[in-house]
Each structure stands twice: as C-alpha cells, then as structure tokens.
Amino acid sequence: MKIIEVLEEAAKRVHKNVKHLAGTKESGTDHGMGAGGDISRRIDIVAEKTVLDYLREINFECTVFGEECGMVELSPNPKGFIIMDAIDGSTNAVRGLPFFCSCKVLHILMHPLCSLF
Fold first, then answer.
1. Residue 21: is its pLDDT beyond 90?
2. What is the CA radius of gyration of the chain?
3. Residue 8 burial (CB count, 10 A)
4. Would you give the DSSP letter of residue 27?
5. What is the DSSP letter of 79?
C-alpha cells in the first residue's frame, strides 16, 4: 500500500467514526488536557484513537506525535514519523460548523514529506 493510501484510509476512518458526533453535546465532553496543551474533547479522542488503531492494524512502523496523545511509538524501529491533529478545528466540530478536518503529515526517514489535510 502506498503511503498516501494509508493516510487517505486513516482520514476515511476518522470521517466514518466522527461524522455522527459533530454538533452534538457528546462531541464536546471534556477529556482533560491533551499533550499539546489544549482541552481534549470527545471528538478529538475518537478521531485520534481511530488513526492509532488503524496504524496498529496494518503494522505501520512509525512514531506518532498527536495533539492529544503526545508521542506514541508503534514500532521499536520506526521508518518515519506521523504528526497529526486528528481533528483540526475541534471548536467548530463541537458547534456543528462544517469547517474542520483531520490533518496528518508523514515524514519518512531519508525521504520527502507526504501530507494529507
């Protein structure tokens, strides 16, 4: 599977798992402070867990830096890094405004950057 396909599939899974949450009271429940220093909302946690679960499912050897989870090592010998904000625009998502997305950037060691917004 090509790298861009991995990122696209992760984005599709996030969409599937959070589309019913956007604009609901449940989406905005407080889950404490994330690694990035902001309040983590339910929609953030669900989206980030979706990405991490998918990467584990396909044995994607990388280290993830997430706004909510911080650093998660998915392999003892990572071949790259994923920097993600699983829901960029959480406040909009919680309020039901359709201006939010899932951002992931992959840096493969010794290779160019691949990103999906």
1. yes
2. 14
3. 14
4. G
5. S
